[in-house]
Amino acid sequence: MDYSNLRRQAASLKKGLFDQGHLDEQFRQVEDLQDEASPNFVEEVVVVFFKDSGRLISNLEQALEKYPRDFNRWDAYMQQLKGSCSR
């Protein structure tokens, strides 16, 4: 598969994600931060987000099992996850 075909596929996928509401202006702002000095910046941000989200969800699952009535603990994990999603 040639490079131009991959670029078209990536552009089509990104357009679909915007059309479906999964990406928004905040994603465009992250893209604007990418330059020749950091050509993989967007990829790195997305990878960090998914790693952190997975860790936070795992922490929440463990808290639900170990501390079924500790709403403050659940809330703390949910606030971390919410903050990660908003950034």
UniProtKB/TrEMBL annotation:
GO terms for biological process: cytokinin-activated signaling pathway; phosphorelay signal transduction system. PANTHER family: PHOSPHORELAY INTERMEDIATE PROTEIN YPD1, PSEUDO HISTIDINE-CONTAINING PHOSPHOTRANSFER PROTEIN 1. Gene3D superfamilies: HPT domain (1.20.120.160). The keyword Transcription regulation does not apply. This is Histidine-containing phosphotransfer protein. Histidine-containing phosphotransfer domain (HPt) contains an active histidine that mediates the phosphotransfer. It is found in: Cytoplasm, Cytosol; Nucleus. Functions as a two-component phosphorelay mediators between cytokinin sensor histidine kinases and response regulators (B-type ARRs). Plays an important role in propagating cytokinin signal transduction. The keyword Cytoplasm does not apply. GO terms for molecular function: histidine phosphotransfer kinase activity; protein histidine kinase binding. It comes from Aegilops tauschii subsp. strangulata (Goatgrass). It comes from the Eukaryota. GO terms for cellular component: cytosol; nucleus. InterPro entries: AHP1-5/YPD1 (IPR045871), HPT_dom_sf (IPR036641). Keywords: Cytokinin signaling pathway, Two-component regulatory system.
